[in-house]
Amino acid sequence: MNSFDAFKDPKLCRALLDRLLAEADQPLRFMEVCGTHTVSIFQSGLRSLLPATITHVTGPGCPVCVTHESEVACFLELAKRDDVIIATFGDLMRVPGPKGKSLKTAQADGARVEIVYSPIDALAVAAANPGRTVVFLGVGFETTAPAVAATIRLAREQNLKNFRVLCFHKLVPPALEALLADPETNIDAFILPGHVSAIIGAAPYAFLADRYHVPSVITGFEPLDILSALLEIVAMRKSGQPAVVNAYTRVVADSGNPVARAVMDEVFVPVDALWRGLGLLPGSGLVIREAFADFDAMRLPGVTLPDAPPLAGCRCGEVLKGKMAPNECPLFDKACTPATPVGPCMVSTEGGCAAFYKYKLDL
Ligand code: SF4
């Protein structure tokens, strides 16, 4: 048995589930804000075993899914340029943009798009192609932003003049605040993202309990982690003492990772940012600081955020706010499947619609 197996132990899971069935005697609508939690809750079968009083809602925890329509249109425009090579993580390749175009179709139309496994790999692409500008697509939450910031710093150290980042990074706490400020979301509790919390720690979530009285637990991704978090939430609701609890102490320090935050702060600065479905949220995105302007793809001549309408018929915006379950979308499993995705929530493996589709027997 490895150390992860211990967090899947069937006997312990059964015991925690029995406790949850006995103790969860009030309605509880909880949201998880991490695509890995979404998948884990389905994959482990937990969703179908939860007490009838507990409703699981997926939130805006998939970075590809929350990338705004205008941001997708922006990088698709950039991909058309002969002097540009786009470097990206593979999960952005099939995200649909205006007129059904994607990086995949752009590639078929002749655009040079390189899939990389780390932002640092994009530096090698830039070094090998001095006659073109290599633009890395900076999409992701606090989890990925530090590595991208460190890559920009490295590009400067290497004196790479043809490397840029299109910075669409987003910050999780402002999105949670926007969800709670919306009276229609009806969220009673949050399971908070383990990976993001490893960077930011617990303090940035304090407002959830202090201002909104919503109990929240930072937890891991194994069944025992999730069941323990739900028991903690049920206990906090019963006691009437909501708090932000770090139950993932084997990975997350309460203070987060100060080294990662320092490089993020050195290279990026928070700004208001667009989110798919949630709109413009104050202080929820990162842009590249003036000191690193030479590495900012938004400062290339002619690059703008174009207006782009929501994808026709796609309800990703409501899914990301927890206002609609993916299988309530009229296109789910009809026009929209993983083979024929209409929206990003069906494209990304961590998207709510893709998880619902893959595990639909478990709905
Ligand atoms: Fe969009 Fe497809 Fe999800 Fe509907 S099922 S919300 S069309 S991704």
From TrEMBL:
One of its GO terms (molecular function) is 4 iron, 4 sulfur cluster binding. Keywords: Iron, Metal-binding. It comes from the Bacteria. InterPro entries: Hyd_form_HypD (IPR002780), HypD_1 (IPR042243), HypD_2_sf (IPR042244). GO terms for biological process: protein maturation. Pfam families: HypD (PF01924). Belongs to the HypD family. This is Hydrogenase formation protein HypD. It comes from Solidesulfovibrio aerotolerans. The lineage of its organism: Bacteria, Pseudomonadati, Thermodesulfobacteriota, Desulfovibrionia, Desulfovibrionales. The gene is hypD.
